[in-house]
Amino acid sequence: MQREDAYTKEATLKNQAKRELANGIDKDPIYKLRLQCFSRGATGILGLSRAFRVMDTDGSKALNKEEFKSGITEMGLDLKDSEIDNMFANFDTDGNGSINMTEFLVKLRPPMNKCRLNIIDKAFKKMDRNGDNQISVADLKNVYSVRDHPKYLSGELTESEILTDFLKNFEAGAPNPDGIVTKEEFINYYVTISASIDNDAYFDLVMRRAYKL
Q1: CATH code at 62?
Q2: Residue 5 pLDDT more than 60?
Q3: Which domain holds residue 78?
Q4: Could you tell me if 124 and 204 lie in one domain?
Q5: The pTM is what?
Q6: Would 132 be classed as within a structural domain?
Q7: Where among 87, 108, 129 does a domain terminate?
Q8: Looking at 67-76, 85-94, 169-178, which range is the least confident one?
Q9: Distance (Å, rounded) from C-alpha 60 to C-alpha 100?
Q10: Which pLDDT score is estimated for 1?
């Protein structure tokens, strides 16, 4: 994946976000939250989405204000109560006391053009072998061979342990890791990588090399 270069770009984005957060200029709450997520790298927005998913016990994708605040607090994101209230009010358009989790995360993510979304979708579909809109170790066993992995050859790690380590890339810093990566979480991970790469063709190349598309 030319991972070293991708990691360098991600590190640059993290540092830029930290500098902007520290410049003392007032910011729109959702932009400030985006910067705080960026300052944590690729797992920032992903971690917040996972925190919300844990709280969405009935699968409705609706969060009340208390759940919304708890998700932000659990991630250790630094926002005033007034800023959280402002964001919640902006998304609770019908005034029923709840907001749609997916709509909020879409707004929080920086925009991505269609070609970038398409290549992310292709990568996800390749990994999601059984078509259930989530990636698990069972899916990966049908996609990747670990036979040439140094730690597999040495006996240090089993096949399942190596594949689980791969999934942990999407769970680093996230609450309650479960070894499952949903399509939304996959997008939330790569949206930050995308934001660190200006050139569409290079982002496309990064994804194709990472997933052998």
Answers
A1: 1.10.238.10
A2: no
A3: 6-108
A4: yes
A5: 0.69
A6: yes
A7: 108
A8: 169-178
A9: 9
A10: 39
For the chain, how many structural domains are there in total?
2
175: left (phi over 0), alpha (psi -120 to 50) or beta: beta
Which amino acid does the sequence have at 61?
Answer: K
Residue 1, in any domain of the structure? no
Q: Is the pLDDT of residue 174 over 60?
A: no
